[in-house]
Each structure stands twice: as C-alpha cells, then as structure tokens.
Specification:
elongated; about 35% helix; BaiN-like; alpha+beta; about 25% strand; about 425 residues; seven-stranded antiparallel sheet; 2 domains; binds flavin-adenine dinucleotide; flavoprotein; Ferredoxin--NADP reductase; 14 helices; FAD/NAD-bd_sf
Amino acid sequence: MTIYDLVVVGGGPGGIMGAISAFINGHKNQKPLKIAIIEKNSFLGKKLLLTGGKRCNITNMKPVKELLLKTSNKTFLKHSFYSFPSEKLLELFKNKGLDFKIEEGDKVYPKNGDSHSVLNILMEYLKEFNVDIFLNSPVENIKKEDDYFIISSLNNIFYSKNLLISTGGITYPTTGSTGDGYVFASNFSHSLSKIHQGLLSLTSNDTFIKSLSGISLKNITISFKHKSTNYFKKGDILFTHFGLSGPGVLDLSNDIVEAICLENKSSDFLNGFFNNFYITLDFLPQYNNEELKNIFKTEFNKNGKLKIKNYLKHFLPNRFIEDFLEYIGVNSDKQLSNIKKDEINSLITNLKNFKVNINGFFNKEHGIITCGGVNSKEINSKTMESKIVKCLFFSGEIIDVYGPTGGYNLQIAFSTGYLAGLSLKLA
Ligand SMILES: Cc1cc2nc3c(=O)[nH]c(=O)nc-3n(C[C@H](O)[C@H](O)[C@H](O)COP(=O)(O)OP(=O)(O)OC[C@H]3O[C@@H](n4cnc5c(N)ncnc54)[C@H](O)[C@@H]3O)c2cc1C
C-alpha cells in the first residue's frame, strides 16, 4: 500500500500547480515527495485548454497591488499573489522554452496562441517529478482517520498525509467542474458561501442589438444604475444573436449579480429580476458630450461634403455605422453640411448614452467562473491550509474568491496552488 505525502483531487491549474510546487518544496528540503493527482476526466486540464478562446490568457502583467484590487478578496489573496506572482509563473514556462506576448489590458498569452502548449509544459513537470496521475477516477468520498486521509475514487483507495482539494467550481460542467469538492469540504465541516455562476453574457430582446450579431467594439463603457449607485466597466463588447457578450459585458455581469440578484433570496436568484432593466453603452468614452459637440461642429464645417457614414469611420467600425445611423433615423449618405442640429443632438445622445434592454443571463451553465465556494475565512491565507482540518489544503476556483476577465482567475488558481504545495507538512 502506497502512502502518499500529497494527494491532489482535481487536475486543473490549481491542482497541477499544487503538485509541482509540493515537489519543488520537498526537493529543496531534500525530501523527494510521493505525490498523486486524481482526476475524473481522461486527461488533465480540460478547462485550461478552453481558456482565452483556446489561446490561454494565462495571467496579467499589472503590478500585484493592482491585480489584487480587482479581485473579490485582496486580503485573502495577498500572500499567495506575492509568493507566486505572474513573473514567477511565466518563468516556470519560459524555462521550458515557451514564449509569451502581452496584449491590450496587460493580458498575457503564449506567443504561439495555443493553450495546449501551457498544458504540455505542466505535464512535462509532472512527469519529471514522478507525480502519479490517475485518470478516469472520479473521487467519491474522502475521510480522515488518525493522521491519514483516505480517498476513495470509483476504482481505487488512496492514503495520504496531506490532501489538496482543487476540484474547481460549477460552470462548464462538461469539463469536470460539477461541484463535487463542495461536498468533500462540507463533510470536513467547512461552510460554503453562496455559489453562483459569474462572468456571464447578457440576453436582450432588442432586435436592433441582435441584428448587429458578430460586430465587436473596442474599449467602450458599459454601465447601469441601481438605487443611487452607478456601476461602470470599460472593455470590449461583442453583439451576438442573443444579446451582448465580450469581456466588458462579462465583467459588468458580476456587478449586476452582486448589486441586484443577490438581494433576491430565492435559490434561482439569477432569474427573475429583469423587469425593465437597462444597461447603457457609451461608444465614445474618450470624449464627454461637450467635447464631442465641439469636434462635430468643427469637423462638420471643415468637411461639409463628406458623408456622415464615412466620417464616423474615424471612431467606429464600418459594419456598425450604417445600422446605427439607420436605427437613430439619420440618413447615412447625408453630407456633413446637411446634418441638422436635432440630428447632431440625437447622434451625440445615442453615441454617449445608448440604452439596451436586458432580460436575462445567457446560458448560466456557461459562466466563465464560479463565484462563492469554500469560505475563505476558514482557510489560512498564508498557507491555504484549512483552519478546521490539519493537512487539508484548498486551491483554485473551489475557494470563494474570483477576479474579472484578463488572466486573473488562472493566476488565482496557480498562486493558491503554488502556496498550498509550498506549505505542506513534510514531517
Ligand atoms: C471558457 C472559459 C474560458 C476561460 N478563460 C480564462 C482565461 O483566459 N484566463 C483566466 O484567467 N481564466 C479563464 N477561465 C477561468 C479558468 O479556467 C478557471 O478559473 C480555472 O480553470 C480554475 O482552475 P481550477 O484548477 O481551480 O479548476 P478547474 O480548471 O475547473 O479544474 C478542476 C478539475 O477537478 C476535476 N474534478 C472535479 N471533481 C472531481 C472529482 N470528484 N474527482 C476527480 N477530479 C475531479 C475536474 O475534472 C477538473 O479537471 C476560463 C473559463 C472558461 C470556462
């Protein structure tokens, strides 16, 4: 019978990094550790392969201080982010020959644009460190007797001195995230904070919005008002056949859930609040209304013969302009000198303050992340060890912390996994 130093349940980024860092930690202490990862799928990292449109937005190069501010719990994540920041994470991959590029918003992707290359290197480390990998092995039950965890999977029983639960959340369940870890944590008397999907697309019945399907706009401001608070996000949006998506919309959806849905105490609180709910799009946030008015005044005088549809190409994509002008009732072939004052006002109002009726979230199972989970107050933020059960660790999305789009959530999984592995009891 093998007694492992560490068994990791769940082979996503949080679990894999836990195993890698545990080995490095043991190695430093001249103690080669016996480590196993138990995974229900037929291969590790199924969700990781989908990330960043399969290009893997692995992390974000903003300074740690700024990254933390955008997460849901900077106090809890501080130690793990400083222990294993983006630079250290990338170093691990660069050491094995993978190059990265930084895109808008400080998002980091592998240069080759392929998430497989990230997973392949993680697998190389696991092989090098002799980590035992058990695939097609859904863990069904875990208990602790004396100083050992006994982990029962469909086809095996494992014994271990330390246990890392890293089973992810509840979204994209076909990737293996079906919330199993919450049961294991609850059985060890951990409490769970309210669990729901996050970073969601929004649905709309506005036929105009649907007619723009496939068009994306860069760096616009999206907002809504609830009670006396204005909520804003700046980012790219994508018009779709169901409504709106894209990073800016996904990020705003978390504010909508937190500001509005969580007030509703029913279990399906992501449904039912969408009565007369609007978000506002500002297509040209770089100018305020007055500035835009002055720009239009000057340019319309200077370039009187130019058609309005051609002039607006300075600001917006071609495909959007004609549909937009038609929708607001301005003839797109009109020359600038012939645009009337009320048409200019309508242009400015609609460019700066375009209302979209929102009637729900699109396909909640496909939220990019899970919000809520194992209560972080019951986990030691300096080690990722449970404050309730000794030698039990958590990493990744199973913990009730999350970030916006842009590489934050993978960094959370990698940083918490790394810290857990580093903090094992090696005696
Ligand atoms: C479409 C999509 C795109 C995304 N893009 C990005 C991005 O570009 N950048 C970013 O930062 N984040 C992104 N995310 C979020 C990111 O993928 C997750 O935050 C991250 O994968 C969480 O890692 P994890 O290891 O905690 O969980 P997971 O990756 O979900 O891994 C958990 C693993 O545990 C296994 N498991 C579960 N239960 C059991 C059990 N009972 N027994 C054995 N194994 C079990 C699962 O099969 C799974 O392999 C994206 C998410 C999605 C869905």
